[in-house]
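Example record

Each entry pairs one chain with its bound ligand, zinc ion.
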Amino acid sequence: MARLRRRPAAVSRFVRPFALATFLASASALAGGQDGVLEGGAVPATDDWCRGPRPAAFASLERVPTAQDWFEVYRIRADVFAIYEAKQYEEVISYLIVGDEKALLFDSGLGVGHMAALVRELSSKPVTVLNSHTHFDHVGGNAEFEDVWNTDTPFSHASARGELDAYGRATLEPDRLCGELPADVATGPYTLRPWRVTHRIHDGERIDLGGRVLEVIFTPGHAPDSLVLLDRARGLLFTGDTYYPGPIYLFARGTDFDAYARSVSQLARLASELQLLLPAHTVPVAEPAQLVALEHAVEEVRAGTVEPVTTEDTLEYRFDGFSLLLAR
Ligand SMILES: [Zn+2]
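Structure tokens for the complex follow.
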């Protein structure tokens, strides 16, 4: 996993590309007025990603008070909660989707806070965990739950054994944290607790929560086991890491850009019947039209009609509201 070094601050997921100029200006100011922070693809003089401005979309979201400081919970719809881990570099977002009879937790976060305890605050219904894919930042809390669903792929199997790359082991390094860890969490190497899978999900499967049906659509590409969740009746699409408003990681082991392109095209065809995207990083709401923009962006990258910004390890192709981050 040599390529998975800590990303440069210029492409922190916290900073949406369209806010990059603002961030770089403030980074420059924080660094004592040094200029030229992005010249030649250099990173800002300060690596203080966590002091960047919170994206404006948060201002209109309803915050739900909960017991643990580690999590920020937002009510996106009456029975849909976004669980945001703002204090760690990944800024991962899990979702609790509540039906009349049961609830589905779409990803379980980093495993730094107590996800099961948080979920009990939000719903008393039986909970199933389904992972958007099994990168460490989406599965860290899986071991706290009895009922965990994954795909039947070698990638999912390896993740469930707790396998973790060097990038993942550095999750709790000081420069990836923004604020205090929970009191009972030790600093030092991050580890992933293995979990037991109770059901192997398949493409097209429908999950009935009682009064709410979710459809599973496999979208391999970002990871081999990536999938999205569609609430067709309400026009909601939980996109996992296939789309989020930030630098979309397409450089990790297991990423398949051709498969990603096919998955994105499949999702773009859904855009006209959607009301909202609920992504797994940075901001829990996005416009469905972004899927069409994403499809065009992927086409441009494949056609070679857009120039990337080059860093030591990556090529970043920037578009309006997101970028695509590929390996060099
Ligand atoms: Zn991922």
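Helices lie at 20-30, 115-122, 136-139, 154-160, 166-169, 257-268, 289-303.
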